[in-house]
Every structure is written in structure tokens, then in C-alpha cells.
Amino acid sequence: MTSPQSISPRVVVVGAGPVGMVCALALNRLGVPVTVLESEPAPVKDQRAATLHPSTLEMLDELGIVEKIREHCLVSSTYRFHDRPSGELVAEFDLGRLGNEIRFPYVLQYEQYKLTASIAEEYADASDFDVRFSHTLTGLTETAGGIEVEYDSPGGPERLRASYVIGCDGGRSTVRRLAGLQFDGFTYPERFIKIATGFDFKAVKPNLSLRNYFSDPLEWANLFKVRGETPEGLWRVILPISRGEDDATALSAARVEERLQRFFPKTDPYYVEYVNVYQVNQRVAEAFRKGRVLLAGDSAHVNNPIGGMGMNGGIHDAVNLAEKLSRVIHGQAGDDLLDVYSRQRRHAALNYIQAQTIANKKLLEERDPAVRRRNLDALRRTAEHFDTARAYMRRAALYDSLHDAAAVS
């Protein structure tokens, strides 16, 4: 076990996405100097995760983030499951029913690029919270008393000595690769397409919530609203793409219009704000720690987006890790505490984030008519009774994952 007194305090976080920035802020608040390296020249305005679950809001509130972002978010207490072929509303889950037991009985819809930018603008760019864009990690070398970080900067190659390096650099993590950690799991044969439009589905279809899941044996769908850059907001539609369709065809204006018209027919064409196609994986790293290298977020685990668990699970990683790593650096614990982090968060990733997102996809895409009917009937019954609805919502909001992971030693 490494003596805590021998460790230099600075931590390098690789990746300035939401997980990396929350991790850096949490460490900074605990008295740990942080340098964030990000290969992109500025916060990336990507259209990825957007839902902050109640359990995550509690963590962000402790960091003073919620009060600063709330006015820029959409608030949603309900989410609904629909049978797409019949148009039937199958089940509604209302987090407001948990108002007596959780601090935030709703989710905030807030795109991840906005969360990243808001943290960078409010807190970063000081000596003890140093965010460096256009800095690309190239090498890691562990030494007796720390770790040497090599990276390319606008001025050329540079080195930085740190106590630990945290990889928050996504599913293709350079940190994970340099550490030699396996990324076990599978890739779905179909790809997903995400289409954003300003058309207000809820205005013409009253049984919609701001978050909706559509079961369909031929083409399941997710539909949810985000604020975007205008007061009217945007609706995002996520659909599967068959293996036989190439990206160029899927992204063509005619094919995008065809998909939207099939989802919700209307007389005039859709105005599309953005569209992208992406491959989806379910993978978990073999460990979240190797020596002085740690992983969090997509670097450690990736999953399909159904249920909005990826970013939330990553933020849970970040807060768990920051608390434990700060204790190690301040000499309050040995570095074997970081192995506890790895076991706890890997347990949560495997048994909750992976299991739930895989189950969510299977529910929506089930093709056997009898199985579909049984599944939707069971979901309807779950939503109708408070005890079962409560249990479902707590699991979906990742409270159960936090409770069970905390018991792992």
C-alpha cells in the first residue's frame, strides 16, 4: 500500500465532459488541486445525454450546481410508456408521488454540453482548477511517487507530474487503453438515429409527457423534450436503424422525413434541427482502477440510452471517487480505498446500469405478441399500485444502485 504522505496532491482528469467536470469540481471542493485535459478546443456542443435523475440532482445540489442551472432546464416529474401500434398509453410513472421521501421528485432536462459549459464558466480556469482545452493525452508513466502525464498542447509536447489520473474520456478512452484495461461486453447489431425537431408533439398529442417510451415490435422509439437554444425547445426522437441501411441513407433528408412521418404523420414536412447516427455498446471495464489510473463514466462503462442512465451513473462514479480520492491524498486513508471505489461502482454498472438499460431495450423491442402483451400488462399493473410503482421509480432513478453499491466493501 502506498503511503498517503508520499503522494503529490494534483490530480489530472482527462476529459472535460459532464463526468470529468463534475469530478474535477468535487475534488476541488475537497481541497484537491485539479488539472483537466481536453483534446477538443472548447466544450463540445454534442446532442447526447440530457436527463438528470433525482439521485444525481442531490449530488449536484451539494456542489451548488442545481440552483445555478434550474432556470435553464425543463422540469419533468412523469414519464410514460406507450404501445406504438395501438397508440395506447400503457403506464405513467410520476416521481411527484415520492415527494415525501426524495429531495427532488422530478428530473431536470439539461443537455450535457450545457452542464459542462456551466461548470467551466463558473468555477474553472484557476491554479487549483485548471482546465486546458486543445490538450491531448499521449502517454502515462507511473513512478515511485506519482504518475507522469504526457500530452500534446498547442505549443508542443509537454509533461505534468500528478498523484493520480482519472479517465473521463469516453467510450474510446485513451486512459483506459494506456492502462491496458479490457472493455468487456457487446455491440448492438443495429445502430440508433437521433432526430431533433421543433415540432411540438405534445400540443397535438395530449397523452405525451416530456419523456416517452414507445414499445413496437417493428420500430420502438423514445421521445423526449429538451430546452435546446430557444424558448420553444426541441423534441428528440430516437429510433433503431436496421443493419442493412448505411449511414448516408439514414442521414438523408428524405429518409429522415420518412421516419418522422411514420412516427407522427402530418401534412407539412418536418423542420429538423439536427440528426446523427451512432453505434451503441453495452460494455464495462474489467476494473475501474489500475495503480494510479482510475476510470469514471463512459471510460468505465457504456450502455444504450434508454432510461437516461449513462451520464447519471457516470456522475455517481465521479462523486464517489472524489470523496475517496480526497481522503487518500489528504492522508486520511490508504490507497486501497480506491479499490473499494472500483468494486462499488463496477457493481453498480453491472447490476443496475447495464441490467436496467438492457431490460429497457428488450421491453420496447419485443416481437412475440404473447410476450409483448404480458410485459405491457405487467408494466401497467406496476404503475397502478403505489408500492410497486415506488419500487420501480427508485430503481430507475438509481437510488437502489447507490444503496447496494455502498454496501460493497
TrEMBL record:
<dbReference type="GO" id="GO:0004497">
    <property type="term" value="F:monooxygenase activity"/>
</dbReference>
<feature type="domain" description="FAD-binding">
    <location>
        <begin position="11"/>
        <end position="353"/>
    </location>
</feature>
<dbReference type="Pfam" id="PF01494">
    <property type="entry name" value="FAD_binding_3"/>
</dbReference>
<dbReference type="InterPro" id="IPR036188">
    <property type="entry name" value="FAD/NAD-bd_sf"/>
</dbReference>
<dbReference type="InterPro" id="IPR050631">
    <property type="entry name" value="PheA/TfdB_FAD_monoxygenase"/>
</dbReference>
<dbReference type="InterPro" id="IPR002938">
    <property type="entry name" value="FAD-bd"/>
</dbReference>
<protein>
    <submittedName>
        <fullName>FAD-dependent monooxygenase</fullName>
    </submittedName>
</protein>
<keyword id="KW-0503">Monooxygenase</keyword>
<keyword id="KW-0560">Oxidoreductase</keyword>
